[in-house]
Write a structure and sequence with these properties.
single chain; 315 residues; Rhopdopsin 7-helix transmembrane proteins; 11 helices; 3 strands; 3% strand
Length: 315
């Protein structure tokens, strides 16, 4: 009987969750529900404002609206399941559901990485080629960059999923997390995963670290150019770059910590995962709105039009 259990394929995983305390889980449910609602409100505000305001129909805001959509999508891959599990003691996810969650988590998260690189390139062109900016970053170019970001990470995620599907899972099925991720799932395979771990660290960690370093160098070059050569609109350019650097640091910091090391458990892993999957998608729109005077003005105009239409409807 013991040998039979060891060879039975895993059909579901048990999630360790964030806490085993019922009282704390209910408290966290209310907190994370508020955070998730704020994430939707902030990112939808950016998307609707960019679409409805002609002043924001520029490449930078087109990319920003797409990033807001990605933040919504990335948060929605893990948070609804986490909120549901906070209300129950038994937290499970089917094997296929786990694979699906991993695929979309890395698909959308990786696309965010591509988008942050594209947004840095957009600022580079705007600062170094201001007279040719609109001709270089035209509609076709923007659509091509967006399509390339989605397609590139779709391939990345499919390859990663194909490697994981080849593994055999027949033993322990408890994940010490509140969602399925590569670093947790691979450890439960019934085979030696050393080579697979190296592949995943290379596929996720080294690529993420390389992109992070490249972005920091790019923004350093852009900031030097702004401080030494840009006279008109310097404050606006600095504010925009500062917002993007803040978002880049918030996004890449947890990514590098989680994926750029061997798959070993650390006590802070859950806290970093909560920051990455729950909190940061809420902070991104706040940063862009608070640091961008043009966005704040557009939101005020949108609210003014909305209130005006409501008053006309009441009359």
């Amino acid at each position: 009987m013991e040998q039979e259990n060891l060879t039975t394929p895993v059909t579901e995983f048990i999630l360790g969750g964030i806490s085993q305390s019922t009282e704390l889980q209910h408290f966290l449910f209310l907190d994370f529900l508020l955070v998730y609602g704020t994430t939707w409100l902030g990112n939808l505000t950016i998307i609707i404002t960019v679409i409805s305001d002609p002043h924001l129909h520029t490449p930078m805001y087109f990319l920003l609206a797409n990033l807001a959509f990605l933040d919504l999508s990335e948060s929605s891959v893990t948070v609804p399941k986490m909120l549901k599990d906070l209300l129950y003691q038994c937290k499970t996810i089917s094997f296929n559901g786990c694979l699906t969650q991993m695929f979309f988590f890395h698909f959308i998260g990786g696309t965010v990485v591509f988008f942050l690189v594209v947004m840095a390139a957009d600022r580079y062109v705007a600062i170094y080629k201001p007279l040719h900016y609109l001709s270089i970053m035209n509609r076709s170019m923007c659509m091509g960059l967006v399509a390339g970001a989605w397609l590139g990470d779709f391939v990345h995620s499919i390859v990663q999923l194909a490697l994981i599907i080849q593994l055999s899972f027949c033993g322990p099925n408890t994940l010490e997390s509140f969602y399925c991720d590569v670093s947790q799932v691979i450890k439960l395979a019934c085979t030696d995963t050393y080579v697979m771990e190296l592949l995943m660290v290379s596929n996720n960690g080294l690529v993420t670290t390389g992109a992070f370093i490249a972005l920091l160098i790019s923004y350093t070059i852009i900031l030097v150019k702004i401080r030494t050569h840009v006279m008109e609109g310097k404050h606006k350019a600095l504010s925009t770059c500062a917002a993007q650097i803040t978002v880049v640091s918030l996004h890449f910091g947890p990514c590098v910590f989680i994926y750029d090391r061997p798959f070993q458990k650390l006590t802070v892993d859950k806290a970093v995962s909560v920051l990455y999957t729950v909190v940061i998608p809420m902070l991104n729109p706040m940063i862009y709105i608070l640091r961008n005077a043009e966005m704040k003005s557009a939101i005020k105009r949108l609210m003014g039009r909305f209130l005006c239409s409501r008053r006309k409807a009441n009359f």
